[in-house]
Every structure is written in C-alpha cells, then in structure tokens.
C-alpha cells in the first residue's frame, strides 16, 4: 500500500528540517479537518465557530456568559466573538440577558432551539470523531499529549 504524506499532499518533496515539516503538517491537517467537519455543520447551517460557542453555552447552562468569557473558552480566540453571537441571536439559537452583577452589561445564554440543534449534532458525534478515526484511541492520546507539549513550550 502506498503511504500518502504531507510531501505528496502539498507537492513539496523536501523540508528545511523535521520541525518545519511537522509545523506545516499540523497547519495542513487543521485545514483538512475543517473541510471534513464543515460538511457536517453545513447541514445545520452553522459554522465551526458557532458550534463552539453553542457548546460553550450549553456547558455553562443555566449560567449565562459574557462575550469575553465565551472568547476565553473558545478553541479559536477571535476578536469577532460579538458578531458570531449576533448571528446566533438572529438564528434564535442564543439570546442576550441582563447581567445580574452589573445591569449595564449583557450576557448570553443558549436557547431551547440552540440546545435542540446541538442534540441533533450529538447524534453525529461518531461522524465528527471519525474525521480522525484512522488512528487508534491510544494514538489519539499520544497525539493529544504531543500537542499539549508543543503549547506548553510556546508560552
């Protein structure tokens, strides 16, 4: 069986060193994973970022969160969290509520419609997990440990 690799995928036979190859492979694989999961999220007309925010809000439910708290918990820390929340509000998946600690501030909470959407996607969790299903559970744990180690060294 012919083994495919990053060299074939991006048509680059040589890399400066193993670190460059690993870094490029990581970026390429992230993009590849986004493409695969996008088709799943498209069925519910949401983006991966919107999915992430909905999961964060479901995890904190019934406690609402500020957009800053949401941003801190997001997989991708972006400055346009407020715009993503506004899109979720327009879809009826989340709503704004007055902050109990400071009535001048607004928090965000998931709606029943948002929870039902996540329940439908929960039924497809095996499909989402299957994106990296070519590796064993043991290999997935090793990969996770290696990614944690990369980030621990980068701060």
CATH C-level of the domain at 46-124: Mainly Alpha
Instruction: Say how many strands there are.
Output: 2
Distance between the termini: 40 Å
Q: SSE order in H/E notation?
A: HHHHHEEHHH
Query: Whole-number radius of gyration?
Result: 19 Å
- Helical residue percent band: 55-70%
Mean pLDDT: 89
Given the helix and strand composition, which structural class is it? mainly alpha
CATH architecture of the domain at 46-124: Orthogonal Bundle
CATH topology of the domain at 46-124: Arc Repressor Mutant, subunit A
Task: Indicate the low-confidence ranges by residue numbers.
Answer: none
The general outline is: elongated
Roughly what fraction of the amino acids lie in strands?
5-15%
What does this structure look like?
The chain contains 8 helices and 2 strands; from the N terminus they run αααααββααα. It has helices spanning 6-9, 18-42, 48-60, 67-73, 81-90, 112-122, 125-129, 137-153, and strands spanning 94-98, 106-110. Helix content is 59%, strand content 6%. The protein has a domain at 46-124: Winged helix-like DNA-binding domain superfamily/Winged helix DNA-binding domain (Arc Repressor Mutant, subunit A). The protein starts with 5 loop residues before the first helix and ends with a helix. The model has no long low-confidence stretch (mean pLDDT 89).
Keywords:
6% strand, 155 residues, Arc Repressor Mutant, subunit A, single chain, elongated, 2 strands, mainly alpha, two-stranded antiparallel sheet
């Amino acid at each position: 069986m012919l083994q495919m690799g990053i060299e074939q995928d991006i048509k680059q036979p040589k890399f400066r060193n193993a670190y460059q190859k690993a870094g490029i492979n990581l970026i390429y694989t992230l993009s590849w994973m986004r493409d695969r999961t996008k088709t799943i999220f498209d069925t519910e007309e949401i983006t991966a970022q919107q999915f992430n925010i909905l999961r964060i809000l479901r995890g904190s439910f019934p406690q609402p969160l500020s957009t800053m708290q949401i941003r801190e918990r997001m997989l991708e820390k972006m400055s346009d969290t407020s715009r993503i929340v506004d899109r979720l509000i327009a879809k009826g998946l989340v709503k704004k509520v007055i902050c109990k600690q400071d009535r001048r501030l607004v928090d965000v909470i998931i709606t029943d419609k948002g929870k039902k959407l996540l329940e439908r996607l929960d039924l497809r969790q095996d499909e989402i997990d299957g994106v990296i299903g070519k590796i064993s559970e043991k290999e997935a744990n090793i990969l996770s440990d290696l990614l944690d180690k990369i980030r621990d060294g980068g701060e």
